[in-house]
Specification:
Length: about 475
Amino acid sequence: MSTADPTPAARALAYVAAANPDHGSGGAQVVQKARRAPARTPTFDEIGTTGLRHSGGFVIEEWLNHLAGPRGVKAWREMSDNDPVVGAILFAIEMLARGVEWNVEPGSDDRAAKLVESCMHDMSGTWADFVAESFSMLPYGWAMHEIVYKRRLGSDPGTTTTSDGRVVSLPGSRFNDGLIGWRKLPIRAQETLQHWKFSEDGGIEAMVQMAWDGVRRELPMEKALLFRTTTRRNNPEGRSILRNAYVSWFRKKNIEEIEAIGVERDLAGIPMLTAPENLDLYQEVNLKHLQEAQALVTSVRRDEDEGIVKNFGWEFELVTTGGSRQLDTDKIIRRYDQRITTTVLADFILMAQDAVGSYGLGKAKIATFGQAMQAFLGMNAEVKNRYAIPRLLKLNGMSVETPPRLVPGDVDEVDPEQVSAFIQNLHLAGAPIDWNHNLMSFMYKLAGLPEPPEHPADEPLPEPRETEPTDAELAAAAARAEEEANA
């Protein structure tokens, strides 16, 4: 290093001095040079990259080639539709998602909250259908929904002329306030994805569709909602929750196919065709007879069309194995089923079938599954709150500084006995309990009772009836009296 170059310590000191001119007096000469240097402005340029591997709009993150792109979509579809264990898991998730109650949490403008709530129930499809469809992100890793708007002009808004001269009916609405609402939030099927459009900094710009009609469509992100199981590396295709279960499913599928063939052969027997004594099937002149014999034994099935036609001298018989298999395929398949359910925290599904596991263990596993489900609902709601609601408010000229939020309810139902025990413990501890209308409504709803009547603000709630104290209350009162006496 030449004498003209500053040492690392000097360079560090110059950097500190530039950031803090009031720094100590050490290295005054370097500090003086730093002060004479032109002031630098902060930069907002993005320098690094997420590391997502993509080329030409195709994501190439999956290292198993037969799970990448359209082949991966086909594999997740086959697992969802053909495997009973995977189907049971996804069915449970969908039913739980449909049963969750969604509420609108107001922001700074009550009008905005009312608009969002009214739009939820003014679409061509139900809100529950939309939520269930968006949860197709779980098997596929992602789900793209297009936001289709409408002008709310009542139930009979009339017709309009499109750009190509067609006269079409305007979508109806339950409201006639002239505001812009959601007409529908339809899914754009994962099978129709051709490729993605990425920006220079790695952002997702659009989904390019190639549907079954052969028409190429480009759906920009400004008009879409992208639900993903994970945003790692900003991968638009997320990651299927079935990915870790794929190997177990693939092996189980092959074993089941082999097992089915084996069962058929064990029940029907293995076809064996014996040629006449003087006929050598492996001579070239008898090649035709060999091919016919092979076709016969490989096509024998026990069904309504069974039957054999043979020439004189040929002998046909079914050979049975006459013994049990060395490997228990049922045990092997159960092991793979257990692994499949474990990867998605749903192994409680198999507990009753195996007749093993305690009630407490099953309850704990269900609670863990419910927590995972609650997390997915939160991720789902965050997409709506971050993109769908602000865009809707902006179109209607409303403030988006503190917009309303969609909040999903709890997946797990609260146990009324636990709540009752909790309130009783509070009462025994002497904690004040305000029996207002909100608390009474919650308790009535928890018990499945109708909504209690609301008392006017100036009318106090009736005092609770005097009842005989319980043994626990008497013991607690005696303990308090003893403590006061000792004090």
